[in-house]
Amino acid sequence: MSRRNRSPFQGNAGSGEKQPTARSWRPVPRYGSGAPCRRPEARSQRGYTLIEVLVAFAVLALALTLLLGTLSGATRQVRWSADAGRAALHAQSLLAQVGVGEVLQPGRSDGTFDDGRYRWVLEVAPYIDPALPPAATADPFAPQMLALQLTVAWGQGGARERLQVQSLRLVQADSDAGLTL
C-alpha cells in the first residue's frame, strides 16, 4: 500500500510504531483549518449571562423613558394647539359681534366662553396715532377711530395660555346716543 492510500489506523506493519486505535484517536485542529475542536471537557456555552440581560433591560428602560417623554410632550403640544385654535375662533367671533346693534363706547367689558373654560376681556379706547401731533380741538361729530384690545385666556392664564388680539374700528358720531358703528 502506498502512503496515500493508507488510513490513519494503518501504519508500517513492522516499524514498531504504536498504531492509533479508533478509541484514542482525536482530530487535532490546525491553525486556520476551520475544523472544530472536539474535546469532551470543553462545553459550549449558550444563552446570555445575567449581566448581559440586566444591561439589555437597562437600555430598554432608557429607550422607553425617552419615547414616552417624547409622546407626552407631543400630547401637550396637541392639546395646547387645540386650545389656542379654539380661543382664536372665540376671539374672532367676539370681535365680529362688537358694535353690531349696540353702541361701541370706550371702556372695559369681560365674560366667558364654554362654561368658563375661556375668559375674555375687551378694552375699547380712542385711538391716538403716534405719528400725528395731538389735535387741539376735536370735532364731536367727526368719525372717531377706536382701538380694541381683546385678551382671551384659558387654563391657568399663563403666557402660553393667553391670546391677545388688537383691532381698530371707525365709528360715526351719533348726535342722540353717542358713538355707533
Short description:
With about 180 residues, the chain is of the alpha+beta class.
Provide key terms for this protein.
single chain; 181 residues; alpha+beta; 5-stranded antiparallel sheet; 1 helix; 5 strands; rod-shaped
How are the SSEs placed, and which strands pair?
Elements: H1 50-97, E1 107-113, E2 118-126, E3 144-154, E4 162-174, E5 178-180
Antiparallel strand pairs: 1-2, 2-3, 3-4, 4-5
The percent range for helix content is 25-40%
Beta-strand proportion: 15-25%
| Global morphology | rod-shaped
DSSP helix count?
Answer: 1
- Strand order of the main beta sheet, please? 1-2-3-4-5
Instruction: Please report the distance between the alpha carbons of the first and last residues.
Output: 125 Å
Q: Give the oligomer, counting copies of the same chain as homo and different chains as hetero.
A: single chain
Average predicted confidence as pLDDT: 79
Question: What structural class do you assign from the helix and strand content?
Answer: alpha+beta
Report low-confidence residues grouped into runs of 5 or more.
Answer: 177-181
Task: Give a quick account of the main beta sheet: strands, pairing sense, barrel closure.
Answer: 5 strands, antiparallel
The helix/strand order is HEEEEE
Q: What Rg do the Cα atoms give? A: 45 Å
- Extended strand count: 5
